[in-house]
Amino acid sequence: MSLMKIIETAEKQHKLEKDEIVALLENSDCDQAITIAADRVRKQYVGDEVHLRGLIEFSNICRQNCFYCGLRAENGAVKRYRLETDEILELARKAKGYGYKTLVLQSGEDTSFTVQKLTDIISRIKKLDMAITLSIGEKSREEYCAYKEAGADRYLLRIETTDSQLYQKLHPHMSLENRKQCLYTLKELGYEVGTGCLVGLPGQTLESLADDILFFQELDTDMIGLGPFIPHQSTPLKNEVGGTFAMAIKVMAIVRLLLPDSNIPATTAMETLNSKGRLIALQSGANVVMPNVTEGDYRKMYELYPGKICVNDTPAHCRSCITGKISSIGRTVSQEYGFRKRKVTTNN
Ligand code: SAH
Ligand code: SF4
Question: From the record, what ranges are coiled-coil (predicted)?
Answer without folding.
Answer: none
